[in-house]
Amino acid sequence: MKPKKLFRRNTKLKNKAGEVSRQNANKKPSDSNIDKLIKEKAVLETLINTTPEAIVQTTTEGIIERINEQFIKEFGYSREETLGKNIDDLIVPPELRNEGISFTKRTANNEKIVTNTYRISKDGNKIYVTLT
Q: What is the pLDDT of residues 66-103, one digit of tens each?
């Protein structure tokens, strides 16, 4: 994936006297804000890894960026076997290929979807899932 470009933006603001001053709109976050973000990230990581649901995070193209422990247990793949692979190639059975591709495209467009279907584990077993 191509890295995103970061832009530094300055904005013109008027102070109380009505004079135009410049303020950096991308100020460095304070240490307390950084600490807060670190704590929030740790809580989120814990939730993702301890939930009883299999969770997969993909790019808009369906490339797997993250899986949780429950995904590993249910589908039988290790992290190394999944990261960087296309979710539709990995667990969608041939007869549901169009459904998988459609779901990937629709979620890439932030469409809210809830559907019951099945996917295939590493050892070939059907796993019934609710895709959201």
A: 999 999 999 999 999 999 999 999 999 999 999 999 99
How far lies 91's CA from each of 63, 71, 75, 132, in Å?
12, 11, 8, 16
Write down the pTM of the prediction.
0.69
Look up residue 86 and give its DSSP letter. B
Q: Are 95 and 67 in contact (CB under 8 A)?
A: no
Sequence spans of domains, the chain:
32-131
Read off the tokens for 25.
Answer: 């709109």
Q: Are the CB atoms for 120 and 114 separated by under 8 Å? A: no
| CATH architecture of residue range(s) 32-131 | 2-Layer Sandwich (3.30)
For residues 75 and 121, the answer to whether their CB atoms sit within 8 Å is yes
Supply 119's token pair.
């996917």
